[in-house]
Amino acid sequence: MSDKPVFKQAQPGRAVEDVSLQIEAAIMGGMFLPGDKLPSERELQVQFGTGRGVIREALRILKQKDLVEVKKGSRGGAFVKEADVANASASLSLFLKQKKIDPEQLIVFRESIDKTITMLAVAQGSAEEKNRLYEKSLEFKALISEENLNMDLIGETDRMLNTLLAKMSKNPLFVWIMQAIQLGFSSYDYALYEEDHYRRLTVNNWIDTAREIKNGEIMKALSYVGYHYSLLRKCINEKNGESIDKETRCLTIEE
Amino acid sequence: MSDKPVFKQAQPGRAVEDVSLQIEAAIMGGMFLPGDKLPSERELQVQFGTGRGVIREALRILKQKDLVEVKKGSRGGAFVKEADVANASASLSLFLKQKKIDPEQLIVFRESIDKTITMLAVAQGSAEEKNRLYEKSLEFKALISEENLNMDLIGETDRMLNTLLAKMSKNPLFVWIMQAIQLGFSSYDYALYEEDHYRRLTVNNWIDTAREIKNGEIMKALSYVGYHYSLLRKCINEKNGESIDKETRCLTIEE
DNA sequence: TTCCTGTAATGGTACTACCATAGTCGCCGC
DNA sequence: GCGGCGACTATGGTAGTACCATTACAGGAA
């Protein structure tokens, strides 16, 4: 009983935070490795000298932080999870939903990230990955040429291409930020796929971008990425332009 | 009793998630505005038809998401909070701590963000902000010229300058990502301030950067930003060159 | 062997009681 | 009349118990 970590007794008034932090520290400190099972709630209750409610709330925090995963039944319990970008992405997503971010600000942010990723992808991506990206973009064109458009599949394909691109940067931070953006910002992006005109331009632009990445033409690839966001700006302006005209920006894309 | 929002009765087995999601939806839907007080735990317990423990765990989730703030005592309760970047930043910070990110990847990520912010700051920042940034950088130089160096204050000043710069982009997303980076990655950055040689170079570089931003010289400013990260890379290499332990290649991302 | 059932461990929920805290309000003394 | 102090009360925080639901596992039956 007393041979194990022996957590400190929690002090009243902030017992939940106390317990939560101690367990988190133990996980971070390597006392529990991914896949390990924490003691059962009833045992932690004894080790910390608290009620079971405190333990449950503390575990709820850790679960919310995506540090542990809880299973029911015999041999169940709280298991330490592998670190994942999903939770951090969800947090940004929540933030984006709460604050009403100006679409233009989101576009600026995303465009800068996208261009950096593109540069890195050209430099770091393997030939295989580049070919794969190009093939997928060609499949994308076939997808929107079908009779009955599957909008869900189209959105998923767009996300897939972006994720593919982000992974080619070989930098998990960009993969994370791309996921976060897709979670919190996707609705704007899909505007491009709603109308036939923009849909064709966008998909063709994906192909152009992928091709230049494959060919190692950084500047051309960046140019196409810029064109993507020019399209997006114009598309969104058109949709909003029905009611508001005065603040339409002068990005002017002539095709 | 039935005149109010009347949450749906929670279904057993996942009552906590049920309650949490319903309350979150109510907040998102504008049923509760920032500053509003949610019903007391004992009242929610009745409205949802659950035990109080379920309500407490659900509120714990919302608190963890930074959606509500809980006060004790009479007239206490759960109050809806204003959306803030702090929580999302903390999530990224946690992610960075869990995954041992390669230092070079962090530098690449941060450098790209920093350069984008710099460009936006030149374009969007007001003259007043630019002057303020420049003055603060000059004060920074005075700070490191003193007899007894206050390392905490130096670190704080560096953070302050970065935050100032991020705000000049007029884009909350960059402010957020800068906060997140500073939370999860700051101790690493401070390597530049540990040794006198790099400290002087870095601070002088801050002044150069701020001056060029003030003068609207985008390319020069970007050049100085690039120099900052050249310094950081060299500094890190030197430090690892001495006491590299081949397994301690992980930067010290601890808190 | 295979399948089924009982059993035990564990999380999920309900309920109660009590403590700690912090506003509120009214009583008391001046 | 005024000010301060103390009781009151609503509310979150914690402890403890009991019971239900789920799941893995062992041991027996076919």
Structural features, described:
Two copies of one chain form a homodimer. The first copy, chain A, has 255 residues and is mostly helical. The first copy, chain A, folds into two domains: 15-80, Arc Repressor Mutant, subunit A; 86-241, Four Helix Bundle (Hemerythrin (Met), subunit A) (Up-down Bundle). The first copy, chain A, contains eleven helices and two strands; from the N terminus they run αααββαααααααα. Chain A has helices at 15-28, 41-48, 52-64, 85-98, 103-124, 127-143, 151-168, 172-189, 191-194, 196-215, 218-241; strands spanning 68-71, 77-80. A two-stranded antiparallel sheet of chain A has the order 1-2. In chain A, α1 (15-28) packs across α3 (52-64) and α5 (103-124) packs across α8. The A-B interface holds A 16, 28, 53, 56-57, 60-61, 64-65, 83, 85, 87-88, 90-92, 94-95, 97-99, 101, 105-106, 108-109, 112, 116, 120, 170-174, 176-177 and B 16, 28, 53, 56-57, 60-61, 64-65, 83, 85, 87-88, 90-92, 94-95, 97-99, 101, 105-106, 108-109, 112, 116, 120, 170-174, 176-177. Chain A binds a DNA duplex (30 and 30 nucleotides) through residues 12-16, 40-42, 45, 50-54, 56, 70-78.
